[in-house]
Amino acid sequence: AAAERELRLRPPAEAPVRLFTEPELARYDGQEEGQPIYLAVKGVVFDVTSGKEFYGKGAPYNALAGKDSTRGVAKMSLDPADLTHDITGLTEEELKSLDDIFNNVYKAKYPIVGYTSRRILNEDGSPNLDFKPEDQPHFNIRDEF
């Protein structure tokens, strides 16, 4: 009960957490001036606009923006074939690298603005029971969706 009370006392997020489909996420690829830049890793959508020099138009990691680039982050690859959510066949070393970068770069530096629909929903549209919101102590699915 005390933990629940503490959660209610925390200030709400600056903006509501959103659920992104692939086409919606693609709109935030850093190509349009003045538009936020988003990228997803492990189905978590980060606002990387403050890293515009890395993810903006013409920047070295722009290929990662506007999509779930989990595989590319794990492999440290900008190959278009690796710019996907699919982690099938990654080595233990690549999976460890993915977790390290996810926690120490993205979660540490950039605000979470949402999740990919694939992260929350299964292919058949049913809820993904393994869904765990990261760093969103105030997050409540009833409130957000």
UniProtKB/TrEMBL annotation:
One of its GO terms (cellular component) is endoplasmic reticulum. The keyword Metal-binding applies. Its main location: endoplasmic reticulum. Residues 20-117 form the Cytochrome b5 heme-binding domain. It comes from the Eukaryota. Signal peptide: none annotated. InterPro entries: Cyt_B5-like_heme/steroid-bd, Cyt_B5-like_heme/steroid_sf, MAPR/NEUFC/NENF-like. Coiled coil: none annotated. It holds the Pfam family Cyt-b5. One of its GO terms (molecular function) is metal ion binding. Keywords: Endoplasmic reticulum, Heme, Iron, Metal-binding. It is found in: Endoplasmic reticulum. Belongs to the cytochrome b5 family. MAPR subfamily. This is NENF protein. It comes from Galbula dea. The gene is Nenf.
